[in-house]
Amino acid sequence: MTRQTIGNPLSWSAQSLAGIGRGLGEAVDGIGSHAMTRPKINRIGPADLRAALRAGASDFAALRSDVIAAMVLYPVIGFILAVWTFNAGQVHLLFPLAAGFPLIGPVAAIGLYEMSRRREEGKETDWRAALSTLRGRVLGPVLMLAMLLMAIFVLWLFAAHAIWAATLGPEPSVGLRAFLQDTFSTSAGWAMIVVGMGVGFVFAAVVLCISLVSFPMLIDRPVGVPVALATSLAVARENPGTTALWGLVVAVALLLGMIPFFAGLIIVLPILGHATWHLYRRAVSYPDQTARSDG
C-alpha cells in the first residue's frame, strides 16, 4: 500500500517530465524545415486584398466576443507604454512606439489565424481552441519568428532614439507640448522627422516582407521557419505592388485604431489578423491542399 502511494507520484512526475521533454523536442524540431518544397506562389491584386478584408470582417463579426476578449490586452499594453514614455521623460519615444506597433502586429494575431482556419474548416472556434494550436511542432517556429520580430522592434526603438539624440537631443523636452513645438518649429526637428520616416520605412518594409504569409503558413502547415520566410519573401517579390498596397492598408488601419488611446485596436487588429489569413490562402496554393492535422 505504501509502495503504491509513493509510486504514483513518482510515476506521474516521470510521465509529466517525459511529456514536457517530448513537447520541447517537437518544438525545437519544428524550427527546421522537413518539407523543403515551397508552395506555388500566386499573383494577387487589389481585388484579392478587398476580398481578404471582407472575409476578415466576416470572421470578426462571427467571432467578435471571443476575439475582443483575446485582443483587449494589446490596447492596454499600448496605453501602458504610452504612460511610461511620459513618466520616464521619454516623450520622444512615443511616436516610435506607436509607429513600431505594426512590427509586432503579426505576433499579436497568431491566435486569429487559427480561429479563421478553424472557422474555414467548420471546426470549433473560440479563443481556447485558438491557443491550443501553440503546441508541439507549431510552438517552436512561431516563437522563433516572434523573437525575430521583437528583435527588429527593439532595434527600431534604438534607431529612433539615436536619430532623436543626433537631432533634437540629447536633452529631453519638458513635456509633450514642448517636444511637439521643438519638432515642428526647428530645422533639427524636421531633420528628425525626415530621417526617422526613412529609417522607419526600411524597418516596416523588412517586417512586411518576412511576415506577409509566414505566420499563417506556420499555423497551417508543418513547415519550419526557413521555408515560411522564403515563401513570404517570394510572395512579396512576385507581388511587389500588392504587397506595398497591403502595407499601406495595414499602416493606415493601425494608425486609425490607435485613436483614441489605442482603443480602436480592439476592432482593427482582429479584422487585419483574420484578413491576413485569407490573404495567405489567396497568395499560395498547395498541390494536395492537406492542412495541418490537429492531432
From TrEMBL:
Position of the signal peptide: none
Keyword Membrane annotated: yes
Keyword Manganese: no
Residues annotated as transmembrane: 67-87, 93-113, 142-167, 187-211, 248-272
This protein's UniProt keywords: Membrane, Transmembrane, Transmembrane helix
Entry protein name: DUF2189 domain-containing protein
